[in-house]
Write the structure tokens for this entry.
Amino acid sequence: MRRYESEAAVDLFVLKTWIQAKFNTDSERGASMVEYGLLLALIAVVALVAVKALGSGVSTKFDQVNNSLN
């Protein structure tokens, strides 16, 4: 009888360890969130620089097209 109790304890320990490994991904999820946040910030900076650099030229072209349509 003692042998079965120890086997059951080992099985429960293995199950507990597997469940913890399967569902304990908080640290990886946080790292992914930080990476996505940094990527979003980089895209925003690139978009702002592009609008600042090309803004007046694009605006002038739109004005020319608008004037030619009228």
